[in-house]
Amino acid sequence: MTAAPIRAPRTPLLHVRPSGVHGLGAFAAVDLPAGTKLGRYTGRRFNAVQVAAMDWDSTLTYLFGLSDGTLIDGGRGGNEMRHLNHACEPNCEAREEHGARGRLELGIHTLREVRAGEELFLDYALTVDAAEGPGDYPCRCGSHRCRGTMVAVSTEAA
Question: How far apart are CA 76 and CA 84, in angstroms?
Answer without folding.
Answer: 16
